[in-house]
Amino acid sequence: MIRVTWATLVLLPMFFSIGLVALCAVFYTVRARLIQRNKSQDRIYRCTVCAHVYVDARFTGLVRCPRCGCLNEPVRN
Ligand SMILES: [Zn+2]
Question: What residues in the chain have per-residue pLDDT under 70?
Answer without folding.
Answer: 76-77
